[in-house]
Amino acid sequence: MPKLYKVILLNDDYTTFDFVIEILKTVFGKSEEDAINLTLKVDREGSAVVGLYPYEIALMKVDKVHKLARSAGYPLRARIEED
């Protein structure tokens, strides 16, 4: 089984809750309820693990988050950490 990596979303003071929820639903396939709960966790704790993936997929997810955020004018960031 391939090694898995955590994708972590990081809090910032500019990205809207609605945008983060949308990212969690579209990029990570979360339900509305899970997306809201994860968004609140990011807001309260500064970050949250939003998925566990093989390295290449984790990289693609982070890249997609950054591209979508930049094109919408938000500084939202995600990073990868070894599980």
Describe this protein's structure.
The protein is α+β, with helices and mostly antiparallel strands and 83 residues long. The chain has helices at 17-26, 32-45, 55-71, and strands at 4-10, 47-54, 77-82. It has one domain: Ribosomal Protein L30, Chain: A, CATH 3.30.1390.10. The chain is 49% helix and 25% strand. Helix 1 crosses helix 2 (32-45). Binds to the N-terminal domain of the chaperone ClpA.
Topology:
Layout: E1 4-10, H1 17-26, H2 32-45, E2 47-54, H3 55-71, E3 77-82
Antiparallel strand pairs: 1-2, 1-3
Subunit structure: Binds to the N-terminal domain of the chaperone ClpA.
Domain Adaptor protein ClpS core: 2-78
GO molecular function, one term: peptidase activity
Write a concise keyword list for the protein shown above.
alpha+beta; 3 helices; 3-stranded antiparallel beta sheet; Ribosomal_bL12_C/ClpS-like; globular; single chain; Ribosomal Protein L30, Chain: A; 25% strand; 83 residues
**Main beta-sheet annotation:** 3 strands, antiparallel
Question: What is the total tally of β strands?
Answer: 3
Number of helices: 3
CATH superfamily: Ribosomal protein L7/L12, C-terminal domain/Adaptor protein ClpS
* Average pLDDT score: 97
- State the CATH architecture: 2-Layer Sandwich
Rounded to the nearest angstrom, the radius of gyration is 12 Å
- Unreliable runs: none
Based on CA inertia axes, which overall geometry fits?
A: globular
Secondary-structure element order, N to C: EHHEHE
Strand content: 25-35%
Fraction of helical residues: 40-55%
CATH topology: Ribosomal Protein L30, Chain: A
Reading off the top of the CATH hierarchy, the class is best stated as Alpha Beta
Subunit structure: Binds to the N-terminal domain of the chaperone ClpA.
Pfam families: ClpS (PF02617)
Family: Belongs to the ClpS family.
GO molecular function: peptidase activity
